[in-house]
Amino acid sequence: MSILFYCEGDDGQLLQTFRHRLPDHVIIDWSCERTEADPSDITAAIVWMPPVDFFDNTPRLQTVYAFSAGVDHLLLHTGLPSQATIVRLRDAGMAQQMAEYALYGVLHFQRQMGLLRSAQRQKHWAQDDIKAISAAHVRIGILGAGALGLQVAERMALNNYPVTCWSRSARINEKVRCVNGEQALGDFLNSSDVLICLLPLTDATTGILNAGLFDQLPQGAFLINPGRGAHLVEQDLLDALESGRLSGALLDVFSLEPLPEEHPFWHHNDIIITPHVAAQSLVDESVDQVIESIRTIERGELPDGVVDTQRGY
Ligand SMILES: NC(=O)c1ccc[n+]([C@@H]2O[C@H](COP(=O)([O-])OP(=O)(O)OC[C@H]3O[C@@H](n4cnc5c(N)ncnc54)[C@H](OP(=O)(O)O)[C@@H]3O)[C@@H](O)[C@H]2O)c1
Question: Which one of 66, 172, 282, 306 has the minimum C-beta count within 10 Å?
Answer without folding.
Answer: 172
